């Protein structure tokens, strides 16, 4: 519910907020030159920073793509029904 309040100040956050937040997280760390951790360390950088945070990009990304597929399929079905109905009336 906090994200709803935050989105009043930045409407971009309400549009797929998890991905937006993670992209900002990675980009701000890149801009700062990775000074908050050991760059290249196999556990602290690659596993904790990259892999564990990438999960928060991959899983929502898959869910967004799945939702788009379902919405596209539903719209196609409605469009085909509308075309059939229209052709019956002509």
Automatic annotation (TrEMBL):
Keyword vocabulary terms for this entry: Isomerase, Lipid biosynthesis, Lipid metabolism, Membrane, Steroid biosynthesis, Steroid metabolism, Sterol biosynthesis, Sterol metabolism, Transmembrane, Transmembrane helix
Membrane topology: Multi-pass membrane protein
Listed InterPro entries: EBP (IPR007905), EXPERA (IPR033118)
Subcellular location: Membrane
Transmembrane regions: 43-68
EXPERA domain: residues covered: 17-66
One Pfam family it belongs to: EBP
Top-level taxon of the source organism: Eukaryota
Family: Belongs to the EBP family.
Protein name, UniProt field: 3-beta-hydroxysteroid-Delta(8), Delta(7)-isomerase
Source species of the chain: Apodemus speciosus (Large Japanese field mouse)
């Amino acid at each position: 519910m906090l994200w709803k309040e935050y989105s009043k100040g930045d409407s971009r956050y309400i549009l797929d907020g998890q991905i937006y937040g993670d992209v900002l997280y990675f980009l701000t760390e890149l801009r700062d030159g990775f000074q908050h951790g050991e760059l290249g360390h196999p556990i602290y950088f690659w596993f904790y920073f990259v892999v564990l945070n990438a999960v928060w990009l991959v899983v929502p990304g898959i869910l967004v793509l799945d939702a788009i597929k379902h919405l596209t399929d539903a719209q196609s079905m409605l469009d085909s029904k509308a075309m059939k109905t229209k052709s019956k009336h002509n």
